[in-house]
Amino acid sequence: MDDDTTLYSIGELARLTGLTVKTIRFWSDTGVVPPTDRTPAGYRLYGPDALARLGLVRTLRELGVGLSAVQRVLGREVSVAQIAAVHADALDRQIRTLRMHRAVLRAVAVRGSTPEEMETMHKLAQLSELERRRLIDDFIDNAFEGVDVGPDFLAMLRDAMPMLPDDPTPEQVDAWIELAGLVQDDGFRAALRRAAADQVRARDEAGALDPHAGWQLAELVRVRTAAAREAGTEPESPAARPVVDELTRAYAELAGRADGPAFRAWLLERLEIGDESGYERYWRLVSVINGWPEPAMGPAVKWLIAALRAYDAQ
């Protein structure tokens, strides 16, 4: 058994630890495993504690801890626990970055992107969570500036912030790239502001509306049009008329107006402006990014628009 007076040469340490002589010499030169003594010929000799120090240094280095941090641990300036916590946080950041790189590369492979598109995707995907939130906040502030959409609507948009997970799928990265481009597009912002202003005018014309009644109407539209689509009822067909009649009467009742050709023309215009704004596309992308179910109102509104156009033409 070794005692406190046992001294080892570098070669003996290499045999006992499995490390190379070159590695031990390098660590010795940097001061993390200093020699205890030297032979008359000048060769280094190490005490029994060198075995324990080498084991700790090897473990920390294999975990990616830098030599300067290792020296602080060995010098008892910081504890192993402190170094481990800091390094684990750093690894978490690296892992998130690597996962994002992997998702971008997979998305590029699926899309067959050009080098320019890949560079744009990479830059947008590398944005921090704070930067992504700031991008969406800026979009919300700009798109609805000067339009009295109400604080509840804006709060709803901010609460539904698109949040890329730490390990996104290529579809989520793709959706984020598309969404980031969409919210920075001046044409989209202008179309959305126009649709919002149109809705505000319609709201003001109708007077105070019951929010609960509005949600009930949206659900009625979703259910009735979904049933029609599942039954194979084309919006242009005569079979669509009872659905159109029921829904337009519900819209008229909510707006406090009489159903008829004039109202249906007015309603069609409102729906078209909203549909052309790209608002549904925005929510579809947010839903993909956040892992939510696909919004159901987009297909419902498109079916109703087509049915109203056909109804008007008959």
Notes on the protein architecture:
71% of the residues lie in helices and 1% in strands. It contains 15 helices and two strands. A two-stranded antiparallel ribbon has the order 1-2. A hairpin with a 5-residue loop joins β1 (37-38) and β2.
How would you describe this structure in keywords?
single chain, 314 residues, mainly alpha, two-stranded antiparallel ribbon, 15 helices, 71% helix, rod-shaped
Helices and strands, with pairings:
Elements: H1 10-17, H2 21-30, E1 37-38, E2 44-45, H3 49-62, H4 67-74, H5 80-111, H6 115-125, H7 129-143, H8 151-159, H9 170-183, H10 186-206, H11 211-230, H12 241-255, H13 261-276, H14 279-290, H15 297-313
Antiparallel strand pairs: 1-2
Helix pairs in contact: 5-6, 5-9, 6-9, 9-14, 10-13, 11-12, 11-15, 13-15
Overview in brief:
The protein contains 15 helices and two strands. The chain has helices at 10-17, 21-30, 49-62, 67-74, 80-111, 115-125, 129-143, 151-159, 170-183, 186-206, 211-230, 241-255, 261-276, 279-290, 297-313, and strands spanning 37-38, 44-45. It has a two-stranded antiparallel ribbon with strand order 1-2.
